Write the structure tokens for this entry.
Amino acid sequence: MYLKRILLFLLVYSFITGLSSPASGQTITLHQGTVIKHSVRVKRKIYHILGTDSLSKAIIIEGNNITVDFNDAVINGTNNPAEPDKFNGTCIFIKSGSNITLKNLGIKGFKV
């Protein structure tokens, strides 16, 4: 009986912890032009990634069945938030794929 309880606890624990983190268990830091091809968690911080007209400098996501947990990170696309007419660029570009989920992200200072 005691052994069954321990096994049940371990099974429930591994199920719960498996749901709370991406499949890869990888945490990444974003940079301009970062390419994401599998589920990840992003390090929580405020990122300054200036918006440009080039999609190659956006955060690029490609692949199927990907979840990107941005962990309440914020991406700022400008150094001057007081001038919204000068915002430009795209923050995130989903290049290809299906069933892509983005969650827990704040985006400021991009045109699109």
In short: The beta strands are 27-28, 35-36, 40-42, 46-48, 59-62, 66-76, 92-96, 100-108.
